Amino acid sequence: MAEDLRDFIRHRIRDDLRTAAVERVVTRFPPEPNGFLHIGHAKSICLNFGVAQEFGGTTYLRYDDTNPLRESDEFVEAIQRDIDWLGFDWEGPTFASDYFEQLYEFAEQLIERGKAFVCSLPADEIRATRGTLTDPGTDSPYRDRTVAENLDLFRRMRAGEFPDGSHVLRARIDMASPNVNMRDPVIYRIRHATHHRTGDAWCIYPMYDFTHCICDALEGISHSLCTLEFEDHRPLYDWVLDNIAINYHPPQIEFSRLSLEYTVMSKRLFSALVDDGHVMGWDDPRMPTLAGMRRRGYPAGAIREFCRRIGVTKSDGTVEYEFLEFCVRRDLAAAAPRAMAVLDPLRVVLTNYESDGETLAAPWHPQQPERGSRDMAFSKTLYIERDDFSENPPSKYRRLVPGGMVRLRYGYIIVCEDVVKNISGEVEELRCRYVPASKSGNDTSGLKPKGVIHWVEAESAVAADVRLFERLFTDPRPGSADFADTLNPDSMRVARAMVEPAVVASDDACFQFERTGYFVKDNRDYRPGAAVFNRTVSLRDSYRPETR
User: Over the chain, what is the mean pLDDT?
Assistant: First the structure.
């Protein structure tokens, strides 16, 4: 908490409360319902909801639904699921469309005050006359229409008399402004399309820069927190509120957006990934969407901790993906129960095991004995990982070799006596001897094997598809133009694994498969008789967040 309070936004809020510039902190999170939220949105969510909670305030969830061509109730519901999953409660939700009538009335006010006009230039000509960063723009030939003419045209636009693109309403500001956003920006356009909430009641829709500031004022937002790309839009935010009859003017404060290695943060690119079949959908576990991260098994607490640690600044930067994984791994180390799964099974037959089988006890979490233990079957036939055996071991290899011994986790010591191969020369089975006196917890054998490996009992183990994910992109900074060229063709591999049955029977979703990594039951494809697990993150990594 103390660390968080050092950022400039919290300093500003404390000062505003101390000087009574505001009575209560009210923030908002205003997504457009045209896609799924991603990890970049999580930073804004955690900031807006977080500061409101810290200072005893509230946060509006407000949908910027001013483009009927791209928005849907599906995305509205998905956004609410994501925010709820992150652990935040909102005021509302509200919608920009709730204020369409008021927004229209404010637009007429601007016309009546000579601050807006109906422009009949085509869109490409408006762009051509906007000027450049060094050259001023050119006045529209329709800029001097009379108030009466502008009101008449604007009302006829609303009545549906004109086709899309024939007219727009523009603010009348300054075509020579050094800020291109102030060069008579479009604030309303014609769009004959059915809106997901208002149906066909409207055929003109306000632009974001006109809508956003007015909604902030109507909802009494105390601090309008935006990412840095809106810094150049702040003069327009202020201009709109200064030129309409409204009694409240919230301050807009900008902060740096999140850039994360090996990801893209664009709904347009997300749509391309989905539409072109590169991923399994918006919630594909390789996607940086919150739905994808949830499906991959990332804990909400780890996302919140990640956002807290990266902090709030005014300077853009790119965060290592390893740092996000560090936060995930740190959360799961304490939360995830332990279990065993063999991802690449190699059969082991214990030649001297004469019993019909027995049950061994294994703790759900070695550092949390209060969680209790689960039963593990043990019998003559087992599976171990194929790479836990080597006929030609490298230096310092501590696993099973011909004539060598290892301990089976929570079980017995075994000694490899024979290697069975198929006609292609591939190892098919190991014949081993187990040491009866070496039972874990009651070992009287005196033997000291160098390695401990995991295993599952062959008959009781459950077959499962285990999806092993790598980075979706091979380039740490994939470009938006050629992003498809840097897609990793090996970003998902499916292993046909054998899993101990207690995992399948458990109500828990996330597990640490010992010596392998953290895994989660897939929340879409998992069902009785068809176990599917997604690898959340590897078990350990050399990354250390020295400065975070």
Answer: 95
